């Protein structure tokens, strides 16, 4: 075991988790990750080994909502980072069930944290920007001070008719509130902090097996690479954050327990959109010959995260960590370079 200790990451095979595991190993920690599918966990191990990092342990947790599901994995850990969430079930299960799964897994992680040992210093919950705004959102600039107030009532009132968007927003909001309620009522010895993030961009650690698995947050880049016209607006907002930056802030929160305790940190770096993406690709990767659209339209110079009708202020995380975000143009070109492997030859 590393002299710095072991960090538990739930949902190790996720988009963010792979980059977080990489960052933790690079910082000198051992990594233990839970997965529902052992084969997916093995792919993460393989990718980390390819980068020269060993020491990633995989624990099979087939049902993250089962009582004591994380007990064994949590034992001996220095930090626990809860990323696992019922994302794939959001659009198929009853919204109330999506919320239940999210809350049960979060409180279950915290119950396991109480049994993990006195060496445990911190627990970090990965929330979402979806926990910050109502649906539909009012125009404005959102920060860690805001909360979604509409999605849980919608799920309660409308049931299945609430739909996947309310299901996702409610699941993140209710689970995060349960996280903070635990801190208020149980007053654990370990630090507790949460992270909210806008749309992830940037390259993952482990490639998706098929192009159909490319997430919605990367759809602008992917559609342009396929020679489609400049896409329309994204769902709700255009703000984004490089997944590698989110991993950095999450890890910082875990290994700085005294500073991060009791805090929410919003990760939001840039507001660009499809036209900005097209302009960036045409500027830096002209050989791709992506659609031109109407250059310069619909975004501000420098891509500030606080621009747009629905905007986000991520300066708190920058000030706390002392490090700025990866430049937006770098994130877009890195994403494009990664996604090119999925283009049909």
Folded structure, characterized:
By secondary structure, this protein is α/β, with parallel strands linked by helices. It has one domain: Rossmann fold (3-Layer(aba) Sandwich), CATH 3.40.50.720. 39% of the residues lie in helices and 15% in strands. The protein is built from twelve helices and twelve strands. The protein has helices at 15-26, 38-50, 71-74, 95-113, 151-158, 163-186, 219-225, 243-255, 257-260, 274-284, 315-321, 328-339; strands at residues 6-10, 30-35, 56-60, 79-82, 122-126, 140-142, 191-197, 199-201, 239-242, 264-267, 270-271, 310-312. The strands form three sheets. The protein has a seven-stranded parallel β-sheet, with helices on both faces. Strands 8-9-11 form a three-stranded mixed β-sheet. Strand 8 (199-201), helix 7 and strand 9 form a beta-alpha-beta unit. Helix 4 (95-113) runs parallel beside helix 6, helix 5 crosses helix 6 and helix 10 (274-284) crosses helix 12 (328-339). The longest helix has 24 residues, at 163-186. The radius of gyration is 20 Å and the shape is globular. The chain starts with 5 loop residues before the first strand and ends in a 6-residue tail after the last helix.
**Which fold does the CATH topology refer to?**
Rossmann fold
Count of DSSP-assigned helices: 12
> What would CATH call the class?
Alpha Beta
- Radius of gyration, rounded? 20 Å
- By secondary-structure content and strand pairing, the structural class works out as alpha/beta
Helix content: 25-40%
Order of helices and strands: EHEHEHEHEEHHEEHEHHEEHEHH
The main sheet comes to: 7 strands, parallel
CATH architecture: 3-Layer(aba) Sandwich
What are the low-pLDDT stretches, counting only 5+ consecutive residues below 50?
A: none
* Fourth-tier CATH superfamily name: NAD(P)-binding Rossmann-like Domain
Assembly type of the chains comes to single chain
**How do the strands line up in the largest sheet?**
3-2-1-4-5-7-10
Overall form: globular
Number of strands: 12
Please indicate the percent range of residues in DSSP E strands (runs of 2 or more): 5-15%
Counted up, domains total: 1
Cα distance, first to last residue?
44 Å
- Quote the average pLDDT: 96
